[in-house]
Amino acid sequence: MKILLSITLIVLAMNVSAQEVNKKIHDQVHNKDILINACTREGITTFPEFKEMYDPLYAAYIPDAATMIELKKLVKNEKIKIVLGTWCGDSKANVPNFFKILDALHFKEKNVEIIAVDGNKKAENGILDGLDVLRVPTFIVLDKKGKELGRIIEGPKTSLEGDLLAIYKKKS
Predict the structure, then answer these.
(1) Which CATH number is 18-171's, of 3.40.309.10, 1.10.10.10, 3.50.50.60, 3.40.30.10?
(2) Is residue 94 within 8 Å of 124, Cβ to Cβ?
(3) pTM for the full predicted model
């Protein structure tokens, strides 16, 4: 009986502390509904305002083949944090292409964390603490221990796959 009670209390505690994923709020800055905090890929790609650009851009994007061959050799067990705004034009334009690259690399979805921010580039519950995000989207590449290797902010300098390759080359 004590064990069952303990397990029940642990499960309740976990549920209370768990954040709502794909949380929708009304953003005062942009006067529209947005996603906030931790999101899933499915959550952002089915969010109506984000989806309208996501589907055609994802389908149309063709990453540079030579760059992708080099990237495939370097990608191991890194993690990537994507901080985006579902209201943001740069996020709508770059996130689909970034996912197309990750899919082509067979990057493990469990190693991708998506955080949506409001119009002030804030999220709740401290999930952005220490990330120093000023513009979105921000793609942060981390090693398996969580140390930042590099980031792509707002848009790429060369191409998304080219900038990603530069981050990976710096690591090795």
Answers:
(1) 3.40.30.10
(2) no
(3) 0.88
